[in-house]
Structures are given as C-alpha cells and as structure tokens.
Design brief:
There is one protein chain. This protein is an alpha/beta fold. The strands form four sheets. A seven-stranded parallel β-sheet has the order 7-11-6-1-4-5-12, with helices on both faces. Strands 14-13-15-16-17 form a five-stranded parallel β-sheet. α3 packs across α4. The longest helix is centred in the first third of the chain and has 17 residues. It is elongated and about 65 Å long.
C-alpha cells in the first residue's frame, strides 16, 4: 500500500462525466512538488461511478486515488462533497490539498478549510515546495499590484485553490502503477438542496476563451465599442479562436465578464494571444503570461505588455490591425 499520510492531494473536478483539465494540471504540479521531498500524491474522486477516471489519474501522476462513489454524487453538491473530503482528510492526514479555482472549486475549498480549521490561499498563480514539506502559495495581492507568497507553517493540511491554465499536466504513462482506495463515507449527511433541473449557460455559440487556441484581446485603447469590433475580423481568420477583453473593456461593456482575462477574470494559455491596446498591468499579465506566443500591439512603446510579448508592434490599433488582417488574408490565399 502506498504511503497515504503526509501526501499532496488534488480534488478532482468533473463536468458532463469528464475530468476537467485543471485536475490534471494540478496533479502534474503536485507530482513535481512531491518528488522534491519524497512525498506521494493522491486524488480525491467524487462521482457517481469511476468509469476509468481513477486509472487515468494514476497514469498522469497519482500514487493513490480515493474514490467516493454513489448516485448522490452524480452532481456537484457542496454539502456532500465537503463532508466526504473532510472525513478523508481527518483519516488519512494529507500535507496539502489543492483545488482548481473554478466556480465549484471556489465554492468548495473555503468550506473544507473552515471545517478542518486550517487556512486557505485562494486564486493562486504559483505553488512551490519549501523546506520540510512547507508549501509556498503565491497569489496577486493589494489589487494585483504585487504578488504575495503565503505559507501555513503550523496547521495541516495546507490548502489552496489554483487557477486553471497555470501548470502543465504530466504526460500520461499507461504503465504507471498506483492504488485505488474505494472509500465509504461513515458519517453521511443529508443534502439541504435538491436539483430539479440543469440547463447549460448559453454562450451564444461562441467558444469559451479558456478553450480557445487563439485569443484576440482588446483594451481601453480602442476608444469605443464600434472600434473594438475589428477584433472579430481578426479572430475570424483562425480556427478555435475567441475574443476577450481586459477589465477596462469589460467595464465599458464591449465584452462580457465571461470573456475577461486577468486577475478578476480568467487565466488562459492559448497557442497564440493577441494583446491589442492592452497596457499590460500586472492584473492582466497574470492571466495570460503562459500563452505560447504573445503578440502585443500598442502605441506606447513603454507599455508593460511588451515585457512579456514575444512579438511587439508599436502603433495605433486602428491602423495596425486592419493592415495585419490584410497581410494574414493574403498569406492564406497565396
């Protein structure tokens, strides 16, 4: 049996029967951190049925997968999930627990922390291993003007929620060995909420920015909503593309909050990221800095966005973007 005490745990998140990518991202980082101090990794899988999820988690770095299965766990329920996670933690005593900072994760993590009487560092953008198994959680602080690193030196488990698209999953290894522990909750609770109906939120047929491979992001420098629409023409030149905005663009209502990139929005890591008329404040950069290729367009040659961009174009977006669109169209037609 794998050593289950003092391990780094990840809480798996499922949607429509599939494990969310953030689970594998956190598991990959948990594996890397655990290896530095000789600890193990474990995943808590709460679902209606295993359906091969545990085996996939082992292939991507888990030493142990605790499964809590049953019809009552078919849909996310904060009361039932909190009860199961806390009971597992009290029995197996992990060193740390990592949650994805999704809608459900942000709901679940603070309840678990309060129940276990430990701390929680929310919305982290980095997790590192310090001495003696001490996890170092880093997140934006003071309105995003600086980054703060937080440790919980005395109480266990150490807990934090981490934004999606921050870490890279491990490559799957089908031959990797691990242990599945089927856990039955001893002190069950009754849910105070009954789900009567579920309907997906409408996205108007648009690709979510977190799923896009190319993102065209605009900032306040566009000046007005009509000018901002040129990003639609740029995005249309690429498959799996989406339009996003800085907080300023969202405040101006040129794009909805679901498409905001940054500290108070979403973290993305597409293959190609256009930052157009975005100054590049820390609040925005922390949400897109892991993009594979960053192209910045800004008339201010000293804009901070150029410090993280792989390619920079100094110029007015009203002039540069139409010319860029023409060049891309000509290249595709050649």
């Amino acid at each position: 049996m794998a050593k289950t005490e003092n391990a780094i745990w990840v809480v798996a998140q499922l949607e429509n029967g599939e494990t969310l990518g953030v689970t594998y991202e956190l598991l990959g980082q948990a594996r890397r951190l655990a290896d530095t101090v000789g600890q193990n990794t474990a995943v808590i899988l709460i679902a209606r049925e295993n359906n091969g999820h545990a085996e996939k988690l082992i292939a991507q770095g888990a030493d142990v997968v605790y499964t809590v299965l049953g019809d009552e766990y078919a849909d996310y329920n904060v009361e039932l999930y909190t009860n199961a996670i806390c009971e597992l933690a009290q029995e197996y005593k992990p060193n740390g627990i990592m949650f994805g900072a999704t809608i459900d994760g942000r709901d679940l993590a603070p309840r678990v922390a309060a129940r276990l009487k430990t701390g929680l560092c929310a919305d982290c953008t980095e997790v590192e291993m310090g001495e003696n198994g001490l996890l170092k959680w880093t997140r934006p602080a003071l309105g995003g003007n600086l980054m703060g690193t937080i440790v919980c030196s005395d109480i266990r488990p150490q807990m934090g929620s981490v934004r999606p698209k921050i870490f890279t999953p491990m490559e799957p290894d089908a031959g990797r060995q691990g242990e599945v522990i089927n856990y039955t909750v001893k002190n069950k609770v009754e849910s105070k909420v009954e789900i009567l109906k579920k309907e997906p939120l409408s996205t108007g047929g648009k690709l979510k920015i977190e799923d896009a491979e190319v993102i065209c992001t605009g900032g306040r420098g566009f000046g007005d909503e009509e000018s901002f629409k040129v990003l639609e023409d740029l995005a249309a030149l690429f498959e799996k593309s989406a339009i996003a905005g800085s907080r300023a663009a969202v405040d101006e209502k040129w794009v909805d909050h679901a498409s905001q990139v940054g500290q108070s929005g979403k973290t993305v890591a597409p293959k190609l990221y256009f930052a157009c008329a975005v100054s590049g404040a820390l609040q925005h950069i922390c949400g897109m800095k892991e993009s594979e290729v960053i192209v910045a367009i800004n008339k201010d040659e000293n804009a901070p966005i150029f410090e993280v961009a792989h390619y920079g174009l100094v110029g007015d977006v009203h002039v540069v973007i139409p010319k860029l669109i023409e060049k891309i169209k000509a290249y595709k037609e050649s």
